[in-house]
Amino acid sequence: MGDALVWSEVQLTIKHLFDQKRMRVCHWNATPGFISAASAAIEHHLKLLIKLDMVEVRSLDDPNLRPADVLFISADGIEDEQYPVWLKGISTRIPKAHGIPVPTIIFGNISSAVQSEILRWAVEGNWYFDIVDPGHVSSLTVRVANFLRVHDHLHEIRRMSIASKTLEDKVADMEKQIEQILKGPTKP
Asked: 0.85 cut: is pTM over it?
């Protein structure tokens, strides 16, 4: 009973956090030969927390992928030795909004050795992604919430940079106008 009460309180708290926003969540099965339950599990867990539109896409080039708040990739059938090359290959194809790659959660079994191998590359990159074992879907809510916040912050920084540049241009223009006024009228 205690757990049910805590879960209800968590749902109410989260409900207030995400009431104003409807998320567009895309799912791509990178290994269609493998049956993946990830899409159904993702949708079930996320619908408990946020309003969402779940969109299945056929590839990373699918026009239905844009826009997306979060991208889920089912990659159950990718072998460890192929993972680093595959991951680096898809990273360049992840859609961007204003130059910011869509945050991505990849479902797949990957060994700790391969994770260590891609660590430096992941740290040096500009793409927020996570690799989740399909058996750990319960951690999905926190991961998605963190990605959405990071993604929102990146867009806010971009908006602030644009506003700052616009203000800087206006100040420079005003300085030129003041300089011309102080010089006075030009004599013929």
From this structure: no
